[in-house]
Each structure stands twice: as structure tokens, then as C-alpha cells.
Write a structure and sequence with these properties.
Blueprint: H1 6-13, H2 19-29, H3 36-109, H4 122-127, H5 167-171, H6 187-192, H7 227-252, H8 254-272, H9 282-296, E1 304-305, E2 328-329, H10 330-350, H11 358-370, H12 383-392, H13 406-412, E3 416-417, E4 420-421, H14 424-442, H15 457-468, H16 477-487, H17 491-498, H18 500-516, H19 522-538
Length: 542
């Protein structure tokens, strides 16, 4: 540096080192660095540094955890708010829907008062005419709700159809205004009380009106059974003989033996695969029809038998029938028998807990037994199925008995095994399934079908009448269980077929019948509960 003296430059260049640093270096590099004290001090310093680093790491870890927890709580709070918002929107939507339903019910409840009947004309008075029958005004109905739209108004009174033993008055052309008696056959009801607005369920008379030779209601205390029902027992015995005959034939024909077993298993498998969706059983129905066709066309040879052994009526050849011959292949009737057995098993195993599952089974029963190619001399062979149903559920055919006696239980269809009678709950489930299945078969609409209904709704009416006409002291828990199963989930179809007459019948079955029962069993209470359920769910005021 200019102007600096040599002494100053020398002083800066050779300045003395820091004494403290020098002493520490000497302490490490000097002679005493390998002593125990020196090593102890170094370990203490290293431990202190380790603790400092560890505490810093722990502090950073805790800070990170706190941030993550804060973030999770914020996300959870946000999710809760979103769910709360969705629930509020759902509640508002349900409130709007409830308001619309209340408004719709209020509109349905409104009725326009009918005009009073016109006074008789002077000509009628002069002629002394007393045969003119007053026109009974029907309850207004719609295509969607059938006869249930105005059910909150009492269906009984001056416009009440007469049921049961009071049918003679209608047959003679006189008006009936008394309260309904225990109901029997509904033919005269439909003649005197036409339904209102046309409905596809009420058009075909053949699907609603029972045969003209319908039996009158039996006297109180007498089971409503006939020789036709006893004939079902004979048919059931003949079906057992048919099965034994096929077993004997199979021993002589290995081809028949192998194919017969395969057919039986295939049929049972397809019946177990039925579903409730509309159009979801096309594959199963086609497979079952293919098996029946194969047994009928002779591709699997079997002996010919007389179908008269498996029906209740006497038949003669009719024009246009596909099968007028006096015999049919025994394998075909054998498969119809196993088809009927599979139907009964499905009703018992699946429909007791869920009555709605009986509907697809009822559809396929109606299809098979009404198909032209499976008729004999123009009529159905559904008596094969009914014979099996008669054995497992005699209540549907007018039989009754005491559940406290051996003979009574047999008459009610209570299953008996080697270990004794089936448990009560098992018996109840069986009867529920069979009652629901019977309704699924009988309440089928054939108005748009070219085929004839094999088991029309009049059969349903007759079965219900046979149960409801039971004297109070003979009413059994089994009857009540079957009756409820017949009605539950089928009441709207019943009303669509019979209109106001069905409402009167439901009142008999669900109100008056349980009220007159001497023993207040669980089945009796179940009928009364069903009446309350119908009032709550569809507004049916009984």
C-alpha cells in the first residue's frame, strides 16, 4: 500500500495467531489428546450434538403430524357438510313428493254426486210394472288405479252387491238391497253390477263369470267339497301309477331311461332359474316347451295312455283340436306331472316369505297349460297340477278340520314325516307359499290372449268363498294363513276383475270372517292386520 511504512507492512503480514484457538488445537493435537478425560469430553460433546439433532427431528415430525391431522379434520368437516347438504335436498324432495301424493289422493277422494233415479213413467204405472230393476251405479275407476281410486268411501249400503246365498233374487230379476251375505259364486253379481269404465281386466266374460252349473253354497257346518274334488285324489293316485309305469318302461328301454332322467333334471333346473323381471324367463320357458314337445312328438318313444285318467271331466273329440286321439304319450303326461311338482316346490320353498315371487311361476303355469299343442280335445290338462295342489293344500278346495287332532291335521294338509308332524312355523310357511301361488295361477288376465284361461278367476272366488263360509267354531289357523296369502299382493288384481264385488268379498274375508272366529289364533290376527295394511298402503277402506 502506498504511503505505508515498512514496519507497518511487516506487522500486518506476521500478526500473532488467536491464542484461544491455538490452545484448543494444542489441546487436541498435543500430548494430552489421548487421555481418558479428553475422550470423555469428546463423547459428551457428541452426545449433546446427537440429542440436539434428534430433538430437532422429533419436533419437525410432530409439526408434520399436526399439519396432517389438521388437513384430515378439514376434509372430514367438508365431507360432513356435503352429506348434510345432500340429506337436506333429499328431505326437501320427499316433502315435495309427499305433498304431490296428498294432493293426488285428495283429487281421487273427490266424487261427483249421482243424480237421483228418474221417477217411473206413467205407462209403467198404468201397466203395474214392478220388474224394472234399479240400475246400480258403479264406482268410478281409472286405468291405473282400477277400482281402488275411490276405496276410502264405504262400498257398502244401498249400492252394495249381494253376495252368496242371496243370488236367487238377482236371477229372478229383482233388486237386492240387503247387506252382503257369505259369498258364493259371483255370476249374478256381474250381471246386476256392471263395472264402470272399460278395462282390459274386465272385458272377457269367460275369464270372470263362473260356469252356469256352479254349485250353490253349502249349508253351514258342511265342507264345500264335491265329487270333482274327490276326483283329484284319484288323479293323484293315477299319477303315481304313471310314474311306476315309466320306471318299468325305462328298464326295457335304455334310451328312454337316460333321456327321461335328463328331461326331469333339465325341467327342474329351468324352473329353479325363474326370475321376476318382465321378459327375463324367455330362455327357461323355451327350454321347458322344448322338453314337452320332444316328449309329445314321439322322438323319445313311450307307451300311449288314456288322458281321461288325469282329468276331472269326460271329453269327446272337438273340431279344430290338435289332439283328438284317445291316447297321448305317457312320457308327455309324466313330464307334465314333474312340471307340476316343480311348481308346487317353488311355491313352498320361495313364496312363503316373499309372495310376489309367485307371479312369474303363475305366468309360466298359465302359458304351459293354455298352449294349444298341450291341450287334449280342446281343453287344458291343468287338473294334473290341481290334483297335486289338492293334496298339499286341501283348504283351497273346501276342506277343513281341527289342528288339535290327527285327522284334522291330515285334512288341512299338515305335512307328516317319519319324525312326526312338521313344526308349526314350517307348516305356516308352506301354506303361505301355496296360497300365494294359487292366486298367481288363478288371477291371470287372458283378455289379450287367443288362448283360454286354464284356471279362471272364478276358481279363485270359489276357493275364497269356501274358506269364508266356514262356521265360526270350525275356523282354523291354517285357513286364515292361506286366505291372507291369497289376498296379500293380489288384492288389486282381484279388484280389477270383480270391481265392487271384490271389495265386498275382501270385507268378508278380512273384517267379518276374523271377527266371527271363536279361537283368536295368530292367523286370525294376521287377517285383521292385512286389512289395516291395505287401508294404509292403497287407501282400501273396509
Amino acid at each position: 500500500m502506498a504511503g505505508s511504512s515498512p514496519a507497518a507492512r511487516k506487522s500486518q503480514q506476521w500478526s500473532s495467531p488467536d491464542r484461544s484457538r491455538l490452545s484448543s488445537i494444542q489441546g487436541i493435537l498435543g500430548e494430552p489428546r489421548n487421555t481418558a478425560i479428553t475422550h470423555h469430553d469428546a463423547l459428551i460433546q457428541a452426545q449433546a450434538e446427537h440429542d440436539r439433532v434428534r430433538e430437532a427431528a422429533i419436533r419437525v415430525y410432530h409439526d408434520h403430524e399436526l399439519q396432517e391431522e389438521r388437513k384430515r379434520l378439514l376434509e372430514q368437516q367438508k365431507w360432513i357438510l356435503e352429506q348434510q347438504k345432500l340429506e337436506e335436498e333429499r328431505i326437501r324432495a320427499e316433502e315435495r313428493l309427499r305433498a304431490e301424493e296428498e294432493r293426488l289422493r285428495a283429487l281421487k277422494a273427490k266424487t261427483v254426486p249421482k243424480l237421483p233415479p228418474e221417477p217411473p213413467t206413467p205407462v209403467a204405472q198404468m201397466n203395474g210394472s214392478a220388474t224394472a230393476q234399479p240400475q246400480i251405479q258403479p264406482t268410478p275407476t281409472t286405468a291405473n288405479s282400477g277400482a281402488t281410486s275411490n276405496l276410502k268411501q264405504s262400498p257398502f249400503g244401498a249400492q252394495q252387491p249381494s253376495l252368496g246365498n242371496g243370488l236367487n233374487g238377482h236371477a229372478n230379476g229383482t233388486a237386492q238391497s240387503s247387506l252382503p251375505q257369505p259369498f258364493g259364486q259371483p255370476k249374478a253379481i256381474l250381471q246386476s253390477q256392471p263395472l264402470s269404465s272399460p278395462s282390459p281386466f274386465t272385458q272377457p266374460a269367460k275369464a270372470v263369470v263362473p260356469p252356469s252349473n256352479a254349485r250353490p253354497a253349502a249349508a253351514p257346518g258342511t265342507p264345500l267339497v264335491s265329487t270333482e274334488i274327490d276326483r283329484y285324489v284319484e288323479i293323484h293316485r293315477n299319477l303315481k301309477k304313471l310314474r311306476s309305469s315309466l320306471l318299468q318302461q325305462s328298464k326295457m328301454s335304455p334310451t328312454l331311461k337316460k333321456r327321461m332322467g335328463d328331461m326331469r333334471r333339465e325341467l327342474r333346473k329351468n324352473m329353479g332359474q325363474l326370475v321376476g323381471e318382465k321378459g327375463g324367463n324367455k330362455k327357461q320357458i323355451a327350454a321347458i316347451q322344448a322338453l314337452l314337445d320332444e316328449s309329445l312328438n314321439g322322438s323319445v318313444p313311450s307307451e300311449l295312455v288314456d288322458p281321461s285318467d288325469y282329468i276331472t271331466d269326460k271329453r269327446e273329440p272337438v273340431g279344430g283340436a290338435l289332439h283328438n286321439e284317445p291316447h297321448l304319450p305317457s312320457l308327455f303326461l309324466y313330464l307334465l306331472n314333474h312340471f307340476s311338482k316343480a311348481v308346487i316346490n317353488q311355491f313352498i320353498n320361495e313364496c312363503g316369505a316373499q309372495p310376489k315371487t309367485a307371479d312369474p311361476i303363475g305366468v309360466i303355469v298359465a302359458m304351459i297349460f293354455s298352449k294349444d299343442v298341450y291341450l287334449w280335445r280342446g281343453k287344458t290338462l291343468i287338473d294334473i297340477l290341481m290334483a297335486k295342489l289338492r293334496v298339499v293344500c286341501p283348504v283351497l278346495f273346501g276342506y277343513r278340520g281341527s289342528e288339535k287332532t290327527e285327522n284334522g291335521r291330515l285334512r288341512l294338509g299338515w305335512k307328516k314325516t317319519g319324525a312326526g308332524w312338521a313344526p308349526e312355523q314350517q307348516h305356516s310357511d308352506r301354506m303361505k307359499g301355496l296360497g300365494a301361488g294359487y292366486a298367481a295361477i288363478a288371477l291371470r288376465n287372458f283378455s289379450n290372449s287367443k288362448n283360454t284361461n286354464p284356471w279362471p278367476p272364478s276358481k279363485y272366488w270359489a276357493s275364497m268363498a269356501q274358506i269364508v263360509n266356514t262356521p265360526p267354531a270350525e275356523i282354523s289357523n291354517t285357513q286364515c294363513i292361506v286366505l291372507r296369502a291369497m289376498i296379500e299382493s293380489s288384492e288389486e288384481k282381484f279388484i280389477q276383475f270383480y270391481g265392487n264385488a271384490a271389495i265386498a268379498a275382501l270385507r268378508k274375508a278380512l273384517v267379518e270372517f276374523p271377527e266371527k272366529a271363536v279361537d283368536k289364533t295368530p292367523g286370525v290376527s294376521g287377517l285383521q292386520v292385512l286389512a289395516q295394511i291395505l287401508k294404509r298402503d292403497i287407501g282400501l277402506e273396509l
